[in-house]
Every structure is written in structure tokens, then in C-alpha cells.
Amino acid sequence: MEWGPDDPGTTAGLIPTPRSSAHEHDTDGETGLLLAAHGGDVQAAHLLGRHFAQRGDRSAARHWWERAAAAGNLDSAYNLGVWHEKHGSPGDAARWYELAAKAGDVEAAVNLATLLLDQHGDVPAARRWFETAARAGSRVAARRLALVCEDCGEAEAAGEWHRRAAADGDLASAHDLGFLAYASGEEDETLRWWELAARGGHADAAYHLGLFLQANRDPEGAEAFFRLAARNEHPGAASQLGGIALSLGDLRTARAWFERAACTGRIDDQRTAGFVCVEMSDPRGASHWFSRAAAGGDPEAAFNFGLLLIAEHSDIQGGQHWFRQAAQAGHHRAAVELAALLSAAGFAREAERWLRDPPSPLWDRATEPELVARAELAAASVARRGGTPLRVSDLTEILGTWDLVTRPLRDHTDVTAWLIERSGLPRGAIEHLASVRAALLRPGGAPWPAPAEIEHVLSTARALRTARPA
Predict the structure, then answer these.
(1) Are 305 and 294 in contact (CB under 8 A)?
(2) What pLDDT score does 88 carry?
(3) Which of 53, 80, 134, 158 could in theory staple to 61 by disulfide, Cβ–Cβ 3.0 to 4.6 A?
(4) How confident is the model at residue 204 (pLDDT cuts 50, 70, 90)?
């Protein structure tokens, strides 16, 4: 609801614009309406409330709406609900919404349910009113009810209400249905719902469908939907298109896409834009993007910014500063370079410390696009309804490590036993890694892994990479 001005300088936005009435015959003016309303005409009382609201007379509007609502006018009851909600009286708002909702006012039922859920946390009561409104045909209520069911762990009921909303044109519910299907391993349904939402203009659906097709080794189809998402200003899609251009050696196009994504604050794309600038012999551009990513906490960008400062500007102090930042964040090469600078500057003790105990090398290997896509889809699925986010880089490292270590194998029939024998790691650790990998690659067989599981499995993956064959 919008609010009309009482005094343009002081009270704009404080009064609800009355909802349209089915029978508006405000042709007699204020005097005629007053006579009719005093004579018991309920519709005239409602129209008087509307009249005074438009004039900015809040107290008169409320007076006449209350008279009309008490006599059964649902529009007045609804408007009073909005009035009290906007003025910070949720109890009174709920009372008027309930009066209208019990008489069959669908919009009042939706507002009442929303108020009960968002301000009172009364899930059972909110759910009842959402369901009442949804069964009466409210698309908004169907979607909200679906989300309540999801939060209660009722995936089947959530799917039913999302389908009702999606069938009525709700693209967000179609997108959510794609995620429910993906998490259940129903790939045909995933494709169906994400394509429906994407072609309706839902940018996230187009992007996730692009990832889904990429994960299923359909690069042409993936690119088409990344372009669709990018037309709706999706930064992830711009990043993907930058990667495609880079793989084709088109540095100019790659730079344009990565910078488009980087301008939204995406640190990975800021770093990559820096690398592309280096390839294009543009140290100024590289410095700009490396510095932004480094300031955002990216150790690889900090290391490269340090290198750039030394190579282009002979700024040893600046290089040392950024090497230290990167080394403290776990960057192995930065620690080695920092030790060399410290040693040359006469700080042998600190240099020795960095050389004696350098951080373990970060995962910096190129990973197959379909594995990166699976990692991002899993992370998005977990985070979609407020779950604890999983880092895409961690999931990519897990999948990429398994792919790297098992590459020499021709027969993967008993890969777990081979890894145990090769690494000397406990069977339970290898089996846990295998189960998490399977959940990421083939959703539906097990729940998504929890953050603690990811930390444990990452340790196993890193131990696998450093283990020497027994």
C-alpha cells in the first residue's frame, strides 16, 4: 500500500491509499457522503474514509473506515489492517486483517499470515492463513506456504505449493522447484523448471541451468543460457562467458566479461581480470584489479600484486607488504618470496621462519568445468534457504583432487582400496571422501555435506595430494 501526504513536507507516506471498492459512486461529494454515512450507508462510510485519506486527514479516514469495517465492509477492514501495520500497531493490524480474512478476503489473509510469521514468529497460525489464501487462488500465498514447508523439512508439500505458484506464473517458485529436483537427483525435472523460469526472464534460473548443462557436458547449451543470464546482468554468467572467451584465446572479450563481473565486487573475477591484463601487457589494469582483490583478502591476488609492484615500480616495501599478507593467508610461494626479500634486507631470523615452516601449497590447478559447475550448484543448493554456505573453492578442491589423484588408474572398480593402499590413510577417511564426492556429483543419494564434513574431507584430500605411493 502507498501512503498519501498530510503535509507534503512532514507526513508524506503515512496514510494508506485505500483499496479500490467494487462500488464507488463518490459523485455527491463530501456532503452527500456524510449524509448517507450518518444515515447508515456502509459504502458511503467506506468512501468517506477513502476521501479523507486522499485529503491527508488521517483521523477522519480512520474513523469512517472503522465504522464501515464494523458494519462488514471488507475493504475498510483491510485498509485499517494496513493502517495499523504501517503505524507500528501489529496487534490492531492483525485484528482487522483477521476480520476481513475470516469473511473471505484473500489479500487480507496473505497480509495476516505474513504479519504473524514475520513479526510474531507464529508459524502454525501463519501457515493456516497462507493455506487458506493459497486454496482460494493466491499465487503469493502458495509461494510463501511452499517456503514455510521447506523450512519445516516437508519437501513433498513444498513441491506441491511451489508447483501451484509456478503454474500461475511465479518464476521464483519455478526456480526453487529446479533446486528441489536437483537435490533429489531428478535431472529431467531440474531441466524442465529451470528452463521454464529462465525463458520467463529469471536470471538466476538461466545461470543455474547453464551450470547444470555444463555439468552434463553440454558446453554449447550452457553458453546459450549464460548469455541469457548475462543479458539480465547476472555477474556469475559474465564470469562464465569470460572463461569461455579466455579458453578461445580472445583476451579482449574475456577482459570485458571478467571486468563486468569484477565491478560487482566478485573477488575471483577481480583476480582473473588482473591476470588477463597481464597477458595483454597492461600493468596498470593488472595493478588495479590485483589491488582490489588483494584488499578483499585474496592471497593469490596479493602475491601477484606484490610481484607487480616489484617488477614495474621497484617497490620492494610494497612487494614485501603484500607477500606477507598472502603468506599469512596460507600462500606458499608468497612465503618463499617473502623469505628471500627478508634475507636480502638482513632479517635472516624471520626469513628462516618462513622457509622452515611455509604454508602448504594452495589448490591452484585447473579443474574440469563440469566439476566446478557441480561444486557451484551444490553450494547454491545448500545456501538457498539460509543454510550454512559451503565455499565453492573447497568443493572444487575436493572434486579436483580426486580427479587428479585417480587419473593414473585405468580400472576404477576398486578405487577406494587403491587410494588406501597408495596413501596409507585410514579406510574411514577415504570412504568419507568418496561419499562426499558422490553426493556432490550425483545429488539425491545422500544429504548435502555439512561444513564440518567439508573441513574433514578437505584434510583428507590434501593428505592424498602429498602422500607418496606406499
Answers:
(1) yes
(2) 74
(3) 53
(4) very high
pLDDT at 32: 64
Residue 39's pLDDT is what?
59
Q: Is the dihedral of CA 420, 423, 426, 428 positive or negative?
A: negative
Contact 67, 60 (CB under 8 A): no
Distance (Å, rounded) from C-alpha 421 to C-alpha 415? 10
Q: Which three cell numbers stand for residue 348?
A: 635472516
pLDDT of 18:
52
What letter represents residue 383's amino acid? A
CA atoms of 28 and 41, how far apart (whole Å): 14
Residue 57 phi/psi, 5-degree rounding, is -90, 90
Assess whether pLDDT exceeds 80 at residue 109. yes
Residue type, 309: L
Closest to 46 in 3D by CA, of 25, 56, 57, 231: 25
Task: Yes or no: say if 32 and 2 are a contact pair by the CB < 8 Å rule.
Answer: no
Q: Which amino acid is located at 179 in the chain? A: F
Q: Which residues pair with 287 in a beta bridge?
A: none
The pLDDT assigned to 28 comes to 54
